[in-house]
Amino acid sequence: MRLIRTTLAVAAAILLMQNVSAQHQETNSPIHINSREDADEPHFRFASFISHTFIPGLSDGGRIAIPSYGVDLEYWLNNHWGIGLHNDIELETFIVERENNEFTERRFPVVTTLDLLYHHDSGVVFVIGPGLEFDIHEKFMLFRVGIEYELELEHHWDLYPTIFYDMRADAFTTFSFGLGVGKRF
Question: Using an 8 Å Cβ cutoff, are 124 and 151 in contact?
């Protein structure tokens, strides 16, 4: 039920941002200047990032931070919509408690998600999609929602802070905070 409410809230936010953006463009002059809409602009984006993933702690109910690295490959259909294959690896072995009070050891788990991306004109990118976390012991289906902020640099480079929330089916949830560098080609 929590997954459904979160999904609906993110979808409503994306639709609202799309509507606000469309209304803003109608009231401006007919000339719209945005470098990402040029016909010769690259559609692919490769990025790498470093982050910390906060997982539930066992004893105090808090969260512990696990360092993680990642790589992303995205294809942008147009100025606003894209599809991304986002991958990261958590760089430690740790134990988590599942919802049914079982304990599971995670050894350097890898998270892969296939995300729908929405880029607002302000530079904010909304991320939502299904994924999989796996290691040598077990796999978890997950659902990711997140937000990035692209700071465009010269020559199709960008810098972007990220925040992700991953909900694993019948297991635990994590937050990730990171910083990445991307290149469009």
Answer: no
